[in-house]
Fold this sequence. Notes:
Blueprint: H1 7-12, E1 15-21, E2 33-40, E3 43-45, E4 50-52, E5 57-61, E6 65-67, E7 72-75, E8 80-83, E9 91-93, E10 98-102, E11 109-112, E12 124-127, E13 138-139, E14 146-147, E15 157-165, E16 169-172, E17 175-177, E18 180-183, E19 190-197, E20 204-207, E21 213-219, E22 226-229, E23 235-242, E24 253-255, E25 271-278, E26 290-293, E27 300-307, E28 311-316, H2 318-324, E29 330-336, E30 340-346, E31 354-357, E32 363-365
Parallel strand pairs: 2-5, 3-6, 4-7, 5-8, 6-9, 7-10, 8-11, 9-12, 10-15, 11-15, 12-18, 15-19, 18-20, 19-21, 20-22, 21-23, 22-24, 23-25, 24-26, 25-27, 26-28, 27-29, 28-30, 29-32
Antiparallel strand pairs: 1-2, 13-14, 16-17, 30-31
Amino acid sequence: MKKLISSALIICTLSLTTVSVLNSCKSDDDPTITRTIKSQSNITVKNGEKLVWDANADYELTGAVVVENGGEFTIPAGTKVYCSGGTSTYIAVAQGGKIFINGTASDPVVFTSKTQKKADWGGIVLCGKAPINAGATATSEVANLTYGGTVPNDNSGSITYTQIRYAGARFSDTKEYNGLSLFGVGNGTKIDNIAVIDGADDGIEFFGGTVNVSNILSINNDDDAFDWTEGWNGTATNIYGKRTSATVGNRGIEADNNSKTHTATPMSNPTIKNATFIGYTTTDNEQQGMNLFRVGTGATLDNIVFSGWEIAIALQDEATLANLNGKGKFTNIKFDNNTHKAKVVVEVKGEPYTFTDVADGTFTESAAATGAGNGTATPSWASGWSGL
């Protein structure tokens, strides 16, 4: 990577291309203004440096931006970032670094690509110092950065009113580039009003940590809409996940604790409030058309709409059953057009899944549940800034 000497030097050495766009921040009386597109590739923001992108420009990103410990990176409201380069292009924030993506409801920040194809870039990665159960610390799938620790209120900055489009890739079961990856991120970090759309892997995934999120859309991503593992303990409020065909995505929720040690602590035990997950009923051999809670996770879900799933709630593995089966952790659930409401998954190696009934008291139903806000319809809080 090219090393950053100073944020001023970065700004001064950008190559420029001029385009005309309509600035959405301006009033209806303002004319079309000229914005430049500035090219960026392979930048490291070091300790003590502050990189601030130009509020009057858009950007073309063709390589990685890595924010190291003590560095800060700010992207102003209204910025559009055209990303290419596949998995070599991503934004990664190391422990002790901070990012500020300062979109607003009227001027969101938009990450997209010129070709508008999935996997055009690697997404956004934050690595914090909050607790995980994969060890005292671990190494991120993207950028090989350390994450995890003993600081639950760790602060990696803020991301607000931001679209993340055409990101992600899946190399193997253990190496994935999601739209937004949160590795050991602490609850001092602000994550709200985020739309992850048309990604090549998960929309958003939590690897331990304590971060809270709100107003999250995950639409037509090729793997899971909403994924957690390694001991995530946070609250997610107003979540809308949707797949629109049997060939796009599989699970709405994929919830894990630790695949190697199901009872590892801290155990994953998030709270999910006001959420809608829309599937596309499938009967394939992998039984992907479900919201799956497995390998020891706990969770509390309230005011949830599950629509269009083969199995709306699927519980797997003994440690998970001990946390969730018959425990009343799923409340005010509305089931809409699902083949099965809830099942226990029985897995025998080399054989297709089989299923048994969950225990009484696993969930309570409510026909009045509104989910993310409008039932299965796009929630009103997503209007405008999300591009939907």
